[in-house]
Amino acid sequence: MAQKTVKIDDPPEALGFLGYVEDEFIIVLKEQAAEPDLQVSPRGIMQTGIKSLDELGKRHQVNYLKKQFPNAGKKVFAHAARKRMSRYYKVRFTRGTLSEAMQAYRNHPLVEKAEPIGMHALHVEANDPYYRDSPDPGFPYDQWHYWGDYGIDANQAWDIESGNPDVVVAVLDSGVRYFHLDLGGYTSVWGPDNPSTIGNIWINPGEVAGNGLDDDGNGFIDDTIGWDFVSSMGGPGIKCLDQDCGQVDND
């Protein structure tokens, strides 16, 4: 069944915005609030063990109240950001309007804030303003590698195949052969001493190739095209295919 939506005052000016979920919203409890003891009453109304919150739940017939991030409060996630996340709860109600219910919870002394749940249309090609032609002319990180002249043309592929949820994708941080023709460009001798901008490999603009200096002050000398961190041959039975596996360097 399609989720019903409702638009309330001052919706965000975002591309693809459809509205807010009609009968659900998020609350954040204040740090001093006791941990709710969540139970369901015989009439199907959520109980927290906090009398004033239970009165709100009864008034708006709250039939669902659960942590938005159920694992955030566990010991392994005990730093400050995770503790804050443990105070987020999703509320579902059946009486009153979204604006009325959210305002009632916002007025409660133990509630830090209440927020609607926005719904947005999905786009095959990203509608992120920083994906293409950032609104800030000085922003240097538009994601040109997806669609630019030397990019991978991913935007064209997205219109053909949107993926298969049964396929597991892994990212192997194994480095690249920077002088491969598909990456470095049409010359096989591309490298720090023969830099070319016609390939897809990023060239460090703050480094001067071959001068033996750390020009950009990042701790690596002559890292024009990045850095090779391989410093060992690998474990038993593992053969390193690099030509200089025993040392870290700029090649």
Commentary on this structure:
The model has no long low-confidence stretch (mean pLDDT 79). The relative contact order is 0.10. The longest helix has 9 residues, at 51-59. Strands 1, 2, 5, 6 and 7 form a 5-stranded antiparallel β-sheet that branches. A two-stranded antiparallel sheet has the order 3-4. It is α+β, with helices and mostly antiparallel strands. The chain has helices at 51-59, 80-85, 98-106, 144-147, 154-158, 181-184, and strands at residues 5-6, 17-29, 39-40, 46-47, 62-67, 88-93, 111-120. It starts with a strand and ends in a 67-residue tail after the last helix.
Summarize the structure.
The protein is α+β, with helices and mostly antiparallel strands and 251 residues long. The protein is built from 6 helices and 7 strands, in the order ββββαβαβαβααα. Helices cover 15% and strands 16% of the residues.
- Element-level helix/strand string: EEEEHEHEHEHHH
Number of strands: 7
Unreliable sequence segments:
none
User: What is the end-to-end distance?
Assistant: 56 Å
Instruction: Calculate Rg over CA atoms.
Output: 27 Å
Question: How much helix, percentage-wise, in residues?
Answer: 10-25%
**Strand count, sense and closure of the main sheet?**
5 strands, antiparallel
User: Average pLDDT across residues?
Assistant: 79
Shape verdict: elongated
Beta-strand share of residues:
15-25%
Output the structural class: alpha+beta
If helices are DSSP runs of H or I spanning 4 or more residues, what is the number of helices? 6
